[in-house]
Amino acid sequence: MKRIAVMTGLALLAQGAIAADLLDLYRDARSNDSQFASASAALLAGREKGPQGLAGLLPTIGLTASSSYNDGKATQPLDRSARYNANGYTLQLTQPLFRWQNWVGAKEGDIQVAIAEAQYSQAQMDLILRVSQAYFDVLYSQDVLSSVQALKAASDQQLQLAKRSFEVGTVTVTDVYDAQSRYDLATAQEIAALNDLAVKREALRVITGSAPQSLSPLRPGVQVLPPQPADMEQWVTAAQASNPNVQASELSLEFAKREVERARAGHLPTVDLIANYNYNHNLGSLSSGLASRTEGNMVGVQMNLPIFAGGATQSKVRENLALEDKAQSDLETARRNISQAARQSYLGVTSGLASIKGYEAALRSGQSSVDANKLGYEVGVRINIDVLNAQSILADTQQKLAKARYDTIISQLRLKSTAGSLSIDDVEQINGLLVK
Q: Crossing angle of helices 34-47/22-32, nearest 10°?
């Protein structure tokens, strides 16, 4: 009980603090979320595939240098010996003229950059979804706690009323037991709600780096708008065309096709332009004993024709053909999954809107039922359990209405995510539904 009192007191103190809203926490998450930081680093790494692919078409320059000590003897036709140093270096430039695998590699680099961009776009939308889900999870836990605490207070009132009525003989002890049972149940639910709120705050902290004690709630009676366009198949079509995961799968298939082409290029000749400069300086000689210095330039074209590589080239082609089939299947899976996700999200919004209307009506009826049963209990036409049941139903309806609203908003965000259109503008729009 002390723990409950402390946590409740902290919650009350937090109400006076400036409440953080969804946009604030999204900005925090962009700076502190480790998963998004990983995606950002992956994007930077992926962008380097472009220069790496292009490098195969550009010239390479290398320098080779050597220094050696020589100690030799000769016996024919004359006995002689020499000890001397030999120094030299070669500077060579190689410009590929025809290396088909390098041309394919340059195109693959561009594809890999596009894949990295698509994956980063998905990571941005995932961050919005994760922050929003964590934010509304905290709000829902707070709503559950408030509802349970209100139910507990109402149960306590009925318990005290039942005890007084029992003392004067107007009710039986059963009414007291019923009220005590409901009060004890509400106390247990309060403890569970406090624990769940702590867990949800921790989940929010993992993403944003902080978990403010006070969050801006939804405005009372806020209206959640239906999806536009109001056509599920249009959303499915948009998802198949614009979802970053589908786009990444399409690019992966294109990359797999290029890999087959690159493997087959292993059968083709290569032609390079070669230019080098050689310099050698010997401080002695076994034949003459005299020092010598030579240098020279060379420019030419070199062709290399692979004839047999132990079957490695053919094996590589077969491997990449199988990987191309895999990429094709992965693309089909991505399309099917995103179509299913788009339909589920669309139905989640439309059914959620219907549920909100139903629970709003049920909430009004539930409050009227509580008031009527209280009045009936006072005049003796209702018993205590009727009031307790009405209060429990009202609390349950309040919780279900809150959950329906949050789930519908999240479904809206998921729907836009499947279509690849979820952005900071949507965060700002949802943020506009909150209390300022």
A: 60
Q: Is residue 188 within 8 Å of 129, Cβ to Cβ?
A: no
Q: Is residue 48 helix, strand or coil?
A: coil
The backbone torsions φ and ψ at residue 214, rounded to the nearest 5 degrees and listed phi first, read: -120, 125
Under 8 Å between Cβ of 322 and 316:
no
For residue range 73-111, what is the model confidence (pLDDT) as tens digits?
A: 766 666 666 677 889 999 999 999 999 999 999 999 999
Residue 227: beta bridge partners?
none
Instruction: Return the higher-pLDDT residue of 381 and 76.
Output: 381
Confidence of residue 167 (pLDDT cuts 50, 70, 90): confident
Stated pTM of the model: 0.87
How far apart CA 344 and CA 339 sit, in angstroms, is: 9
254: which 2 tokens? 């294109």
The CATH H-level superfamily of 2-56+99-268+306-431 is: Outer membrane efflux proteins (OEP) (1.20.1600.10)
Among residues 115, 57, 103, 60, which one has the least CA distance to residue 262? 103
The pLDDT confidence band at residue 213, using thresholds 50, 70 and 90, is confident
Say which residue, 296 or 12, is predicted with more confidence: 296
Q: Please, which contacts does 97-103 make with residues 24 or more away whose CB atoms are closer than 8 Å?
A: 97/271, 97/272, 97/273, 97/301, 98/269, 98/270, 98/271, 99/56, 99/265, 99/270, 99/271, 99/272, 100/265, 100/268, 101/56, 101/262, 101/265, 101/266, 101/268, 102/56, 102/57, 103/56, 103/57
Cα of first residue to Cα of last residue in the chain, in angstroms, is: 33
Domain ranges of the chain: 2-56+99-268+306-431
